[in-house]
Amino acid sequence: MKNVKMLCIAAILTAVMAVMSNIAIPFSGIVLSLGTLGIFLTGMMLTPRYALLSTGAYLLLGICGAPIFASFSSGIGTFLGPTGGFLVAYPIMAFVTSLGFSREGIFRRIIAVIAALTVCYSLGGGWYAYYSGVGFVKSLTIVALPFILFDIGKAVLAMIISGSVKRLIKM
């Protein structure tokens, strides 16, 4: 019965990621979306295995054409486009976050969020650097630096929301 509950929560979180990713604001050529909030919620609420399953389903749906990537985009072209590295990072972020949140302790959880953001910025920045032909450091100033405070805020919000929801549904 626990597996069915986890599978249902994973499916709901896939839908949450789809909705959150489309709450987006264009910001200096890059889209600021709540997608990472959905990823953090997924990692904070699910086991590592189910976090991978949920984010994998999200990516598969988007690649197959469901308009669930930022700004209602979809398809393999978006996945392989200039910001595709962030999409590639999503399952890893959810997995790393889940590992940190599978045990008690605020220090462990903070490290998990920092590690997840490092994965996000490394893969997203590296992919963007390769795609656009700018250096890695220049890429990070474009696609990561302006968003760090927003992403930390999304992680804190996800901690609050996930803690409350876990208590409500007795996880």
Protein architecture, described:
Helix content is 74%, strand content 5%. The model has no long low-confidence stretch (mean pLDDT 94). It has 171 residues and is mainly α. The longest helix is centred in the C-terminal third of the chain and has 27 residues, at 106-132. A two-stranded antiparallel ribbon has the order 1-2.
Helix and strand topology:
Elements: H1 2-21, E1 24-27, E2 30-33, H2 35-45, H3 48-63, H4 75-79, H5 84-101, H6 106-132, H7 136-143, H8 148-168
Antiparallel strand pairs: 1-2
CATH class reads Mainly Alpha
Q: Which structural class do you get from the secondary structure elements?
A: mainly alpha
The helical percent reads: over 70%
CATH fold assignment: Arp2/3 complex 21 kDa subunit ARPC3
Major β-sheet annotation: 2 strands, antiparallel
Q: What is the strand tally?
A: 2
The shape is globular
What topology, given as strand order, has the largest sheet? 1-2
Compute the gyration radius: what is it? Answer: 15 Å
User: Could you spell the SSE succession in H and E letters?
Assistant: HEEHHHHHHH
Mean pLDDT: 94
Helix tally equals 8
Unreliable stretches = none
Proportion of residues in β-strands:
under 5%
Domain module tally? 1
Distance between the termini: 13 Å
| CATH architecture descriptor text | Orthogonal Bundle
